[in-house]
Specification:
This protein is an all-alpha fold and 85 residues long. The protein is built from four helices and no strands.
Amino acid sequence: MLSKYTIALLGPAAIVFTSLDSGSRESYRRPEPYLAVFIAILIFTPVLYWNMSHDWASFAFQGPHRWSGSHEFALHLLLGTALPS
């Protein structure tokens, strides 16, 4: 979560998988998954606090405003930036 916010999708995917897989349902009886969620939230809390104090700047940057406007693909620009100079 500290580097890519899309990793937040991993949590719901893990819950769906462990709910559907009979062998994995036993993990809900153990304390480790709950402890891991608590530690992850604890570590991510400063990021949330900073965003709250700065009008959710990083979430706004990653959101739909980032993709507004028209974008055109140019092969020569892609190759110019990808190839070493």
